Amino acid sequence: MIEVKGLRKFVVDGIDFVARPGRVTGLLGPNGAGKSTTLRVLLGLARPVGGVALVHGRRYAELRHPLRTVGALLDAAGPLPEQRAVDHLRWLALSNAVPRRRVAQVLELAGLAAVARRRAGRLSLGMRQRLGIASALLGDPSVLVLDEPTNGLDPDGIRWVRDLARESAAAGRTVLLSSHVMADVAATVDDLVIIHRGRIAADGPLAAVTAGHPSLEAAFFALTGDER
């Protein structure tokens, strides 16, 4: 479970929400609303001014084996350009006490087995995105945090990410997905949190948040003060 309680940092102004096991929770908001800041605090990359962001009741820094608890894909994250894909995953496995056999498993799962020895700098944007997702899956974590996971992916890759999120939730994992692509969110999430100007504009099941609106996009613009 992910719990955000009274979180304050930069624009983020005392937000509260919960992402529960067995469900995909979508995190939406306009640029500058505070989504990235929230994720960075959750993953221990930034310190909050107030409040907390917890995974299974603990701050990220308190987790004994972070990669085996939280698998994360952040938009700008990635391996060094000269590093081979397989070596990047092997290093992550070694540094997080993950069995080496898991590397081959996630390469296959992410559709990267054929390019495992290719250097990251020579991978296409879509392949680099798949490598980032493979890194998130490496520790077989109980929590997945995915920021813009379909960026650069072709239609087959987009469908794979949607299925991955749904299947992960069905297996009892907690999935938090942040995206600007409304179609991805509408087709994937169970619950929705919308942040606007650093505060929660909506929080609840997808059907409840979109009730009375013809689409998620229409609900989003209405809730963020930009009806069209």
Describe, in plain words, how this protein is organized in 3D.
The protein has 228 residues and is α/β, with parallel strands linked by helices. The chain has two domains: 1-56 and 144-228, Rossmann fold (3-Layer(aba) Sandwich), CATH 3.40.50.300; 78-141, no CATH class. It contains nine helices and nine strands. The chain has helices at residues 35-42, 66-69, 85-95, 101-109, 125-137, 155-170, 182-188, 206-210, 216-223; strands spanning 2-9, 12-19, 24-28, 50-55, 70-73, 143-147, 174-178, 191-196, 199-205. The strands form two sheets. A six-stranded mixed sheet has the order 5-6-7-3-8-9, with helices on both faces. Strand 8 (191-196) and strand 9 form a beta hairpin. Helix 3 (85-95) packs across helix 4 (101-109). It is globular and about 50 Å long. Keywords: ATP-binding, Nucleotide-binding, Transport. This is ABC transporter domain-containing protein. It comes from Dactylosporangium matsuzakiense. Residues 2-222 form the ABC transporter domain. Belongs to the ABC transporter superfamily.
